[in-house]
Amino acid sequence: MQSHYAADFTRELGSSEADWLRCLPGAVRDQPLSLPGPGVAQVVIGDGALQLDWHSLPPRQIAMARFPRLMVHFRFVDVSDEARHRFMKHFDLYMQRGGG
Fold first, then answer.
1. Closest to 91 measured CA to CA, from 79, 78, 77, 74
2. Distance between CA atoms of 1 and 97, rounded to whole angstroms?
3. Which of 2, 13, 33, 95 has the lowest tally of Cβ within 10 angstroms?
4. Contact yes or no for 78/48 (Cβ under 8 A)
5. Contact, 33 vs 49, CB < 8 A?
6. SS3 per-residue string spanning 15-62
7. What distance in Å separates the CA atoms of residue 48 and residue 25, rounded to the nearest whole number?
8. Rounded to two decimals, what is the model's pTM?
């Protein structure tokens, strides 16, 4: 299976850190999750791991509305393309916000 999820990438997410931390356990599903320090999470995926690092960005402002933003770096180590694809498909679906 060819994956379009690279082993190392960065994304801007429309989320506050509080919302991110609230949703993160469900997004990683049944994979062991640890939060060893501020702005860092580690997820065990089989014999490999995912390292997540994030920091808040200034809110995006559109007219009078302000939207929180995070910059999140994903780094998979020793996770196969297939396992990475399967993990990220669930992660993305879980973290998806309303809209359509």
1. 74
2. 27
3. 2
4. yes
5. no
6. CCHHHHHHHHHHHCCCCCEEEEECCEEEEEECCEEEEEEEEEEEEEEE
7. 18
8. 0.90
